[in-house]
Prior knowledge:
DUF2950; Nuclear Transport Factor 2, Chain: A; disordered N terminus
Amino acid sequence: MKNRMKLSALVMLMLPAFVQAQQQFTTPELAASSFANAVISQDEATLTEVLGDNWRHYLPDEKADPEAVARFIRDWKVSHNIEEKGDVAHLNVGQENWQLPIPMVKSEAGWHFDMERAADEILTRTIGLNELSAIQAIHAYVDAQQDYYQLDKQYAQKFASSEGKKDGLYWPASPGEAPSPLGPGFSPVQPGMGYHGYHFRILTAQGAKAPGGEKSYISDGKMVEGFALVAWPVEYGETGVTTFMVNNQGVVYQKDLGEQTAEKVKEITQFNPDESWQQEQQ
Length: 282
């Protein structure tokens, strides 16, 4: 047993010697071309040489989004250029000059991709995309509630309908039947998973700070006086930062509730945007 432990320890000590050194390039243009060629040829071994052995730590998904890869390849073929500032360079591609979030950094050995520096930019972009998706989903919710009202002369009090019923904004459509006002994304199969990094909850009342003052949207069990929604990040600082609210007037309000977002959202039972909430700029 002791010999096995010594052998295991020896192997662990020797591992760093076998870690493949990240490839260095004489120019950022060569680094960018090597990266693009690896992506185009789907050569993961070369990609590891270019980005470094730990690149999966920052990009953990086993498979990249095929559409995103296809867009990058298309844009690369349209045009590509290097934006260089001192010892840092970025790759821009396509007509819209989309910038790869992984910077190339110059050291004594040459130019290399810096995944550690990329981590913050990747997180920032992920949060930004999730927040834009949340806003789009909120507008879709407003449209869906208005469509639902045309069908049933009341607003829906939940996202997914009960089995065999149409008492929510979504229900499975039979062949030849018109689709429900909203898709199933707002009610994920796995609890807590969220939709594009956000949770959504229907509000059935508004407070004194809302246009029209405090009131319940429900009358005689039916939600006919209006509707509202609150949306907040599944993981604050990881999937999103901003919390959003909207009512039947369609104006989206936003606020950063901070690290205690999950707890603070539990206290939101009404659509009540006070002065601390800002209107979302479209």
